[in-house]
Amino acid sequence: MSISEQARDDTITAQAVGLAFPDVPGFKGQGWSTQETVMVVRWLFANPAAWDQAMDVARKYPENPHTVADTLHETIVPRSELDAIATAGGDPARVNWLEIGHELIERRDDPRPAEAPATIATQAVGLASGYELNPRSGMISLDLPPGIITPVPGGVSDHHVTICYLGEDVDDEAFAQACDRARQAATAMPGPLAGMVGGIGTFPASDGSDGKVPAWAGVVLPGAEQIRASLEDLSASEHKDWKPHVTVAYTEPGEPLPAPVPQMQVVFTHLSVHRGEDEVARFPLGGDPAGSAQAEPVSVSEQAGRPAGSPALPQT
């Protein structure tokens, strides 16, 4: 493949991914050179403080896009976000910082987007499959709606980011405590979390995965670390290092991995506490009173509109 063909294949139109700056004639449809560049711009759109800081630099140095690009790379976008791009299957070295710098300068007098451009939001919970644990297994998670990620045949059917695995046998007192703590953690957030999901990776097989290899899509989710930090003392997982991910399948050692999950942006609006097949309590991020009706434990079958009976929740 020639360089020009590769560049053409890598180009992602702003219109296609919803990344057009607001109300700018001639900008819609312009391409970003790499997916990694798109991910950084999406992160800026989803983080008002970072957006304002970047625009301040663009207004201060309108004749020097290299300074804007270097400041964005070295000061504004944290290293953790670049590491998360790699976790999601991207290459941080492919972020075109100068391209973003030019666009920030060109649009330096434009209003900041009112919200992140993502439109995929969590609306329902699914049921886990993959391997069985105790029916009273529990976790605190950020749940994706069914159908956002196409299930792998024989793989996991409920897709979620596990914030904290609570153990194999969560009694009523522990479940109530987890719900109370999750409510506090959700209320402490400024609002929904926007991020990117995609790629494919693995964790080593372990006793906790019944000797199977967990295959997962990486997650770039600014703000998730804050939730994890406030709840990690509840963790009963054998794995001490937490890496946000969405498990898609459990494969036998040596088996081929599933195909990488296409990169997509998602927005999580609720933090959920699960126990076994039937119970879930959901708490709105930001503590929106309008979502308080969803905060009491309900049947997953009622919440998801489908019968219970799938295997219990896995750890990852």
Short description:
With 316 residues, this protein is of the alpha+beta class. The chain has 10 helices and 11 strands. Mean pLDDT is 74; it is low at 1-30, 115-133 and 289-316.
Tell me what the structure shows:
By secondary structure, the protein is of the alpha+beta class. It folds into two domains: 3-106, no CATH class; 138-304, Cyclic phosphodiesterase (Cyclic Phosphodiesterase, Chain: A, Alpha-Beta Complex). Helix content is 31%, strand content 21%. The strands form three sheets. The protein has a five-stranded antiparallel sheet. A four-stranded antiparallel sheet has the order 7-6-5-8. A two-stranded antiparallel ribbon has the order 1-2. A hairpin with a 3-residue loop joins strand 9 (270-275) and strand 10. The chain is globular, with a radius of gyration of 21 Å. It starts with a helix and ends in a 12-residue tail after the last helix. Mean pLDDT is 74; it is low at 1-30, 115-133 and 289-316.
